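Reopening this ticket.

The earlier resolution said the output was attached, but the attachment link was broken on my side. Pasting everything inline this time so it's all in one place.
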Amino acid sequence: MDSVSEPPLLLKPLLRGWSHVVALGVLLVLGSLLIGRAADTARGPGLMVIYVLGTAAMFGVSAAYHRLRWSPRARVLMSKFDHCTIFLAIAGAYTPVAVVGLSGNYQLVVLCISWGGAVVGISLQWLPFHLPRWLFAAVYVLVGWSAMFAFTQLYNGLGPLGFSLILGGGVAYTIGALVYALKRPDPWPQVFGYHEVFHVFTIIGAGLHFAAIYGVVLSKL
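Inline output:
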């Protein structure tokens, strides 16, 4: 998750991308367990595959983008893919949450907003000009909070624990977006800079959402 104007990999902070390499490995193991546990339900496997693939795409593309060497042209493309997968992760996580935690019109509207917002966010990455950092962060946050208009219904559907975990994940993602937009804090620029802080908050957000889906959503399928 980076801007295309950043310097070559060797000039980046030493730990750039490593947190998402580790997060991808952990997710693939835990995600496999999650899908396996959902296998006994009719709709569970499909919902969990959508969720795991979306989050794995976010961590996997980010890890590849930040750790591998790319030509200037490929680097621009990978930056776009990197940003696109964030929206896939958000919509993928909201899918099982909305299907289990909501019903009727609320369920339909949240699914339409989250996936529609993902389409908008992804489309913006392919405009023929570079998006301002703050605009990307703003769209990221808006899509990430798209289910909060069904605040009461989501609380009733998931219960206090599930709702709190989803809410906490949203807060973590939002803090990460602010760090990305402001480039602050930037604690150790040559080793662990603001972008690494941003990555840590995406891991915290994804971890809280995984806990909600594994611990609460799965039991309600």
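Reporter confirms the inline version is readable. Helices lie at 18-37, 44-67, 72-101, 104-124, 133-144, 151-182, 194-217. Confidence is low (pLDDT under 50) at residues 2-9.
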